[in-house]
């Protein structure tokens, strides 16, 4: 925005102009992407650290762009939040992830819990009704759905968010706190939210082996145990990290060590290969 004094225009550099044009292009193309089925949901397994079983997966959006190939969310999520397109995009991801999860359940391939990322911009009075409608349309068991909200959204201690979370819990949908450790949540706030899962941010897992990060991860795990909240480590890439987390009694993990996010076809292949073993 160029509100404020006329002096602001002096700082509108050619690079900024480029950026605006790029955003406008993405905005226009994204409208088309949603209409023309260019969005994809990729799935990354969530693994139980004690049994090694895949018990669920995180749904991660991708954009199969006609010219630029498969685009990661960093190329378009922020823009979609800025333009409001995140509402339509988020609704599409939620419905597709629920449909696919119920399909795998119905086909006897696996009964898994899918977690779907929710942007703060999606959370409003109608959100719970929307989730209910999607569950009804896709026939997915609510217990098979988890919604991931970032720590920054959840720390917004407003009556509205508290009511919405309670209503979601009442339906049977699980709630997890994403990127945990990057914000400033208080123990009391986390207790009040009645969360189901804490997802420890990748930045701490990356640092495992250093005394500081070991201590932080240990502290998060012991806090989660006190609150009786499940704990999942994000971004596990090495066996050393997995072994540390196992001995520290972390419940679950996700990361390249187990698998990168996969297309639905490849994820289904992974599930059937695992079953045959
Ligand atoms: P996130 O929710 O924290 O998702 C985890 C990200 O870490 C994913 O990136 C995943 O591919 C990546 N990752 C998983 N394991 C590893 C690992 O072992 N090492 C490393 N280096 N990275 C790993 P991705 O798919 O690019 O997604 C980035 C972010 O975009 C997500 O971060 C999430 O904030 C957002 N996002 C993705 N899909 C959606 C969506 O459907 N809706 C919304 N609102 N946001 C989404
Ligand atoms: Ca997430
Ligand atoms: Ca995360
Ligand atoms: Ca993140």
UniProtKB/TrEMBL annotation:
Protein name: EAL domain-containing protein
Keyword Membrane annotated: yes
Part of the full-length chain shown: 814 to 1090 of 1093
Domain of life where this protein originates: Bacteria
Domain EAL: 23-275
Keywords, comma-separated and alphabetical: Coiled coil, Membrane, Transmembrane, Transmembrane helix
Species assigned in the record: Spartinivicinus poritis
